[in-house]
Specification:
Radius of gyration: 18 Å
Bound molecules: 2-oxoglutaric acid, fe (ii) ion
Strand content: 15-25%
Strand order of the largest sheet: 1-2-9-6-13-4-3
Largest sheet: 7 strands, antiparallel
CATH superfamily: Alpha-ketoglutarate-dependent dioxygenase AlkB-like
CATH architecture: Sandwich
Order of helices and strands: HHEEHEHHHEEEEHHEEHEEEE
Number of helices: 9
CATH class: Mainly Beta
Length: 260
């Protein structure tokens, strides 16, 4: 675990050069062809313990999931067993632009508020919004994409995404389910000896990501909570059962911060 992040940091260094933000990060250690029906309402769930963490479980139909996987295969990525990550910056492949458009549509067709700005969201705790309007309406919504493939047992260590990326990150899950755990950043900076096991585990929030789901991280979920996928035996427990693991593919969409 953790190799994917190391690779990602390395590639970002090659693209942008080194910076102190990278060090902070290390320390802390869909296709929408036209099959989205008009007027279709996407059901969103908010993860109550974490402000800014939203889940759209049925974002992609099984057919849309297969066509997205085919599009990834057609890129020629992941042909070798050693290849497990692909990234694109700037101009994304057409299918990724369509996926980004689908995220936009899914937020717009939400059963929650879609016209609330970040500032309004924080005023008076009005957080009932899958993605604030200032993020949703930016152009482009996303200009960086990373595809990750995880074999059974492989995951990604706890991290906050690099500060090179703006607020508002979307993760689409494909192939097999997993449990992603969220831990508040303050948890890891405190002395573990003053906490009991029970308290620590209570502060780890598990979120079940089924294939076809979309998770959005903004605000506190993006900046104040680390996310991780630990697929070592004993860690992928959901509703009292250990998940049987298959290969998992994920697509993460982000927006690079504008450099002056
Ligand atoms: O694979 C995932 O679901 C998450 C990937 C991730 O967190 C990242 O690339 O920063
Ligand atoms: Fe991440």
């Amino acid at each position: 675990m953790g190799e994917k992040l190391d690779d990602e940091v390395e590639i970002l260094k090659q693209v942008f050069g080194d910076s102190s933000e990278d060090e902070d990060f290390i320390d802390e250690t869909v296709t929408t062809d036209s099959s989205f029906e008009l007027g279709h309402i996407h059901k969103w769930e908010q993860v109550k313990q974490i402000k800014g963490l939203w889940l759209c479980r049925f974002f992609l139909s099984p057919q849309q999931q297969s066509s997205l996987l085919s599009a990834i295969r057609n890129e020629g990525w992941f042909m070798e067993a050693s290849e497990n990550q692909a990234m694109r910056f700037g101009n994304l492949p057409t299918w990724a632009v369509e996926l980004s458009d689908s995220v936009y549509e899914a937020v717009l067709s939400s059963n929650h508020k879609t016209d609330t700005s970040i500032a309004d969201c924080y005023n008076g705790d009005k957080i009932d919004c899958p993605l604030p309007s200032d993020i949703l309406w930016r152009e482009p919504l996303f200009d960086q994409m990373i595809a990750n493939v995880y074999q059974p047992g492989e995951g990604i260590c706890a991290h906050v995404d690099l500060m090179r990326f703006e607020d508002g990150i979307a993760i689409v899950s494909l192939e097999s389910p997993c449990v992603m755990h969220f831990t508040h950043v303050d948890e890891s900076s405190c002395d573990p000896s003053i906490k009991g096991e029970g308290i620590l585990s209570a502060l780890k929030v598990p979120v079940y990501l089924n294939p076809g789901s979309l998770v959005i991280l903004w605000g506190e979920a993006r900046y104040l909570w680390k996310h991780e996928i630990n697929r070592k035996p004993g860690f992928q427990i959901w509703e009292g059962q250990e998940l049987s693991q298959g290969r998992r593919t994920s697509i993460t969409l982000r927006k690079l911060c504008h450099v002056e």
